[in-house]
Amino acid sequence: MTETQTRTGLYINGAWRDGKRTLGVWHKYTGELLAELVEATPENIDEAVSAAQRAMAERPLTAYQRYEILKRTQELVAQHQEEIARLIAREGGKPLVDARAEVNRSQQTILIAAEEAKRIHGETVPLDAAPGSENKVGFYIRVPVGVVAAISPFNFPLNLVVHKVAPAIAAGCAVVLKPASYTPLTAMWLCDLLAEAGLPPGYINLVVGPGSTVGNQLVRHHGVDMVTFTGSPGVGEQIRREAGLKKVTLELGNNSANIVHRDADLATAARDLALKAFTSAGQFCVSVQRIYVHEDVYDTFAELMKANAQTTPVGNPEDQRTIVGPLIDIKEAERIEEWIHEATAGGATILAGGERQGNIVLPTVLVNTSRDMKVIRQEVFGPVVSLVPYRDFREAVDMVNDTDYGLQAGVYTKDIGTAWYAIQHIRAGSVHINDTSAYRADLMPYGGVKRSGLGREGPRYAVEEMTEIRMVSFKLA
What we know:
Aldehyde Dehydrogenase, Chain A, domain 1, Aldehyde Dehydrogenase, Chain A, domain 2, seven-stranded mixed beta sheet, six-stranded mixed beta sheet
C-alpha cells in the first residue's frame, strides 16, 4: 500500500502520474490541507480512455477472474476499514459513525457485485415460432458495454464509487473514474486496493478536476461507451444532452417526503426521521426533508421532532459522538441559511435550530411552511426538515407527489390498506413502509422517476445497464 501523498490524483494504466498540482483537498472541519493533486488535462483523459480500451481488448477477464478480483478487493477494504473511515471523515466532513457505516456498506456492495459477475447470462429465443424461421435456432448473450465513465459525488466517496466501479468490473468493463473534487482521496485509495487485488492495468483509471472541464470531456469522449453519474438534476440533464447515443445512468436529486399517519408509532417515527434528516448534515439525496403528519398527532409529533433536533450532537466529524458535522463547504452552509431565512420571511416558524456556525448548520425543524418555499420545492441537501399537517391520507399522498422529484418516500402506518394505497399512488422509485425515505439496501434496485434520474443502481441492475444484448442465430442444415 502506497502512502496517500504518493497518490497524485491521476492514475492511468496502473500507474500514478505526476504533473502540475493545482487541486487542493481540505479537511472540512479544521481547514487543514490534506493533499494537492494533479488536475487532469485533455491529453490525460485521452490516455485514460485509451488505456481502458486496450485493457478490454488485450486482457479480457473471465467471469471467475472478475469475481476473484472483487472478492479480494472487499477483503482489502475490510483490512483497512478504520483508516478509510477516518479519511472519509476528514475529506468529506462525514461523522465517523456514518463513515464507518459507509465502509461496511461498501464491502457488501463489492461482494454483491462479485457474485453478479457469475450470473451474467442470456437465454434462448424460439426463432421457429416466426414464419420462415423453422430451421433457425437462436439465443442471446450479454457482453460488456465498453468503457464506462463513472462520475461520482462527494457525499458517499466510497460506497457511491463502488456502486459504479464494482458492477462495471463485474460486467467486464474498464472504467475511467472522476470522483468529486471535494473528496477524491478515498477513491484514490480504492484504485490501489483494486490493483493489489489483481485488477490488470487499464481497467481502473482515475482523473480529478472540475465537472465543467474534466467531466464534460469524459462525457463527450468518443471512446467512452457509457456514462454513469450521481449528482444534481441540472448536471444530469446536461450530461444526457452531451452524451449523444451513449448509454447513460443518472442518479439525481430528491426532496424526500415521508408520511406519519395517525396510527403510527410516533416515538419510533420521530427518532428514525430525525436521524435521517440530520445525520451526515442531511447531505444525501434520500435524506428526510418533508414530513406530512396527520393533524390528530401533529402537535405530539412536532414536540418529539423538536426534542430530537435539540439533542442531536453537532461538531467535529472525527469525534465519535458527532451526528451532524460540517457542510461540504461554506457556500453550501450559507445557501441553506438563506433558504431558512426565506422560509421564515414567508411565514414559516423555526421549531428548532435555524442557526449557522461557520460551515455547520444546526439541526433545523420548520413548521408553517408553504408549498412554494425552496425548503419544500427544491432539494435542501442539508439538516433541515419541514413538518406539514394533513387531514386525509389521500391529501397527504397528493402533497408527496406535488414535486418535480420522485426518488424515495417513507410511510408510517399500521394499516395495510393505507400502506397499499401509498404503494399504488406515490410516484417514486421506492416506497418504504414503516421506514424512512432514506432506507437503502445496496442490493436493491435504486433509482427514481421524473427529475430524480434515469436507470437503476444496485449491482444486479447496474450490471444489466453495463452490458448489451448480442443476438445469435444458427441456420440448421
